[in-house]
Design goal:
Layout (H helix, E strand, L loop, with lengths): L3 H4 L16 E4 L2 E4 L11 H18 L5 H12 L3 E2 L3 E3 L2 E7 L7 E5 L7 E4 L10 E8 L5 E8 L5 E7 L4 E10 L5 E2 L5 E6 L22 E6 L8 E4 L8 E6 L5 E7 L7 E6 L20 E4 L6 E7 L2 E6 L7 E6 L2 E9 L6 E8 L3 E8 L2 E8 L5 E5 L5 E6 L6 E8 L2 E9 L6 E7 L10 E9 L5 E9 L10 E4 L14 H10 L2 E5 L9 H5 L7 H16 L8 E6 L1 H12 L6 E5 L18 H4 L5 H10 L8 H4 L10 E6 L8 H16 L10 E6 L10 H19 L6
Parallel strand pairs: 34-35, 34-36, 36-37, 37-38, 38-39
Antiparallel strand pairs: 1-2, 3-5, 4-5, 5-6, 6-7, 8-9, 9-10, 10-11, 12-13, 13-14, 14-15, 16-17, 17-18, 18-19, 20-21, 21-22, 22-23, 24-25, 25-26, 26-27, 28-29, 29-30, 30-31, 32-33, 33-35
Helix pairs in contact: 3-4, 3-12, 6-7
Amino acid sequence: MGSLSISEDLPLQYPLARRDDSVVDVYHGISIRDPYRWLEDPDAIEVKEFVEKQANLTEILLQKCESHGKLHHQITTLFDHPRYDTPFKRGEKYFYFHNTGLQAQSVLYVQDGLEEKAEVLLDPNSLSEDGTIALKITSISEDAKFLAYGLSSSGSDWVTIKVMCIDDKCVKPDSLLWVKFSTISWTHDGKGFFYSRYPAPKEGGQLDAGTETNINLNHEVYYHFLGTDQSEDILCWSDPEHPKWLFEARVTHDGKYVLLYIEEGCDPVNKLYYCDLSVLPHGLEAFRERDDILPFIKLIDNFEACYLAVSNDGSEFTFLTNKEAPKYKVVRVDLKEPAIWSDVIPEAEKDVLQSAIAVNGNQLLVSYLSDVKYALQIRDLKTGLLLHHLPIEIGTVYGISGRRKDSLIFIGFTSFLTPGIIYQCNLATEVPEMKIFREIVVSGFDRTEFQVNQVFVSSKDGTKIPMFIVSNKNIPLDGSHPSLLYGYGGFNASLTPSFSVSRIVLIRHLGIVFSIANIRGGGEYGEEWHKAGSLSKKQNCFDDFISAAEYLVSAGYTQPRKLCIEGGSNGGLLVAACVNQRPDLFGCALAHVGVMDMLRFHKFTIGHAWTSDYGCSDKEEEFHWLIKYSPLHNVKRPWEQLSDRPFQYPPTMLLTADHDDRVVPLHSLKLLATLQHVLCTSLENSPQKNPIIARIDRKAGHGAGRPTQKMIDEASDRYSFMAKMLGISWIN
């Protein structure tokens, strides 16, 4: 019966949630009840009362988790270390983000040279008492005179763009609202920048933005002139005939062109248009008096592949693409002869080309992913020929900072046992010189205490799935260890090695064996790997994750009652679906901000963009894919399914946040009410004794921009719950 003996001392009185069985949708002739539809309204008093009761229930349980205080203390202690991002250069100045340790948000610094004293340019911690205002986007003008920055409140995807004069740190009156899914790209004359936004809703006001669930439609690109009101911004591109498409404008490094990227969903495919700014007879100013949009020319006008600009010499452009190359390649085309394309770096046989950045005049810094481990090379921009390998350990490259005119570049590196190293690489020397510019040191962390292994697990259909396993040194494989298995498996995203304070605390003080399964649906082996875990093949993700869990048991790392699974967003869906399909295999489940209602996700905020990975219930064939695994629609009483092997659902914590306007809270709330009803409140003397609870954060969103204290608090809550449910004792 799973963790029954552990949770018998935790009798929970679940609040009864009203069921409205009159709410029925008919999908292609099939009637589907949705009795908790009322939980979709975040502003309803009844919903707020439901959330409050669930929060109180969770608080009662967490107070009985003995390791909570120790976890909170240890995570806080290890978190309190200086952290740096890679510096980047604009004009003659350098900029970088730095956190002294427990600051809510990282601070943006500026310095006149690498050896000069750094000054605070923008401290977001001064903008709110609780640290819930975060810097979402930043962009420095080419002459380093102005900083444009986007502020997000309480974790919402909505952003307000402000402008600061860098020399005197004076904030200008410019204020741009209703910005979402946007970059900021300056024209090289420094007069203004391109950005993306949605139309202001008719009800107006942005003070409470982030709790609404309305679908996001009619994305547009604007140009803002410094010192003017937003009402005077130039509309550069919109497409009312395709209200769900997303648009992004980027100025090329030479300042001559603006490129328009058009996406219809989350697949790595896009259209690509361009506008030659140098031939506009009266510049962008002329469009302030005109109603027409910029005269973009179509280079790629279909959604067959991904195209990302690497560099250009006049009209000759170099792109990173997956066109007829699922592991990506580098290609070149002259805009004057758009039908003639040539390969610069062909697709590799096995490794995935992650990025290509033009540096040091005519060189390319390229990164590859090889069995989920990064490799770095310097190649010739013109010919693609390999010039140098850059030596790095097994791990992840992040935050590469350098542009075509730079011979001095910066490279961030992390791994499971490396908190962070920023390398300074001088490409002006005959052999590139790599030296440590900054190293992040965590007091009290000794990497020699731990070990990392990579294994390849056979999935249900025989596909080999890579998995990293991190543990204390020299553990016996006798099935005695508690284990935490993490996964994602979607949207072409790759889970590569990275350092985590909370994971180190779990391994050291709870004896946890931590694993990451690189299941299909991600981008670890390119677009074919992604497609093998999406749409009609989504079940492969769950099969892969279940196979990874079974391996941890069969190899002697753990046993089902000691195994916890965890994932966020698409990974929250993964965890919930696997619990539905194999409740006997897990001793605990932590599902963060998950997509749980697979029949209605496309109706809220940006959910419509995810149909590229999931499909859509409006289409009959795709409805039949979705209904088979939708977490909300597949909750069953396991003791009725297999009477010869009675068991219950594992202890489960669903995590969501009131300002998550990416995966709106209704997903977790509806699943929570359904789980509690089916398993607990609808039965007298229910066999389900394991807790089914939710942690619902306030003034928080999907994850980005979360203050340090909120991250520590959440980690302490969820992992002390896990420790209690798995029966783990604290190790000093």
